[in-house]
Amino acid sequence: MDPERLDPLDQAILRVLADDARATFAQVGEAVSLSAPAVKRRVDRLRERGVIRGFTVRLDPAALGWHTEAFVEIFCQGSTSPATMRAAVERYAEVVSASTVTGDVDLVVQVRARDMRHLEEVVERLAAEPFVARTRSTIVLSALVRRPEALPAPDA
Amino acid sequence: MDPERLDPLDQAILRVLADDARATFAQVGEAVSLSAPAVKRRVDRLRERGVIRGFTVRLDPAALGWHTEAFVEIFCQGSTSPATMRAAVERYAEVVSASTVTGDVDLVVQVRARDMRHLEEVVERLAAEPFVARTRSTIVLSALVRRPEALPAPDA
DNA sequence: GATGAAATTTTTATGCC
DNA sequence: GGCATAAAAATTTCATC
């Protein structure tokens, strides 16, 4: 799973790019004491290795019309394969994340909606999926921390 | 909250950048039928407006040493302010997201850890926070969908 | 095996229409 | 918003440690 460990320079580069993925190679290089070409070569290699999956934009959900968020816990009927759950849930533009979990709940789906009315509609659609026995929703009141980007793990 | 609605061109640009934030303005322009300078002006404006908060890198958690994930539900003693919760939870490098929620639980914290041993240690640290009465953890078995980037909301 | 300096190509950033 | 241009950055080449 860790074919080659990331050296401290790679980690530093990733931290800079996590903060600003459009920083120039020269800027990253300045932060980590490396020349622009050296940074580019390391970034290219991190992409080849799959450590870097891509680059994306961080957007303000509210500015895009998403004013409501919730965790929808789903209890499945009988045994449903993760592949089935995934295929179903993937089709929802409103689904942020979906995870199978331990415990009495089978699936936790994080949903974004325009408003309560929209959220209700999404939950109803989810509840109507053939493998869904029952749902339980928890509304997000306040998003205190949102840090989706994985950073190099702190040392043990 | 929506000072000016995003027109379809802005939405298209954001979708391209969500997929590849390092695409050149010319590439984005080709996808949305606009010249490179026109794209740049719109992107600059979207940043000024705060719709675009920044650019970041998508990394493979496993390649970085994160092999375990969990939802830790936290019950608070008495009444704790969101600011207090936030300040506490923010200091954890392992915290991906934290949200105050409706229902019997007060706070849902999404945690990433190197392994079960590390997760246990993080949960113990959280449980020892002064405002925490009790925690309940749910381990993520399989991450079916991970789509952190907010995209333009589908029309009503 | 990885780096830095220099040369070349491409992109970005601006002024103008 | 497009076009043209100057400035900056990315990318390639090449020599070095």
From TrEMBL, chains A, B:
Keywords: DNA-binding, Transcription, Transcription regulation
Keyword Methyltransferase: no
InterPro entries cross-referenced by the UniProt entry: AsnC-type_HTH_dom, Dimeric_a/b-barrel, Tscrpt_reg_AsnC-like, Tscrpt_reg_AsnC/Lrp_C, WH-like_DNA-bd_sf, WH_DNA-bd_sf
Annotated Gene Ontology cellular component terms: cytosol
SUPFAM superfamilies with a match to the protein in the record: Dimeric alpha+beta barrel, Winged helix' DNA-binding domain
GO annotation terms (biological process): response to amino acid
Superkingdom of origin organism: Bacteria
Annotated protein name in UniProt: Transcriptional regulator, AsnC family
Species for this entry: Cellulomonas flavigena (strain ATCC 482 / DSM 20109 / BCRC 11376 / JCM 18109 / NBRC 3775 / NCIMB 8073 / NRS 134)
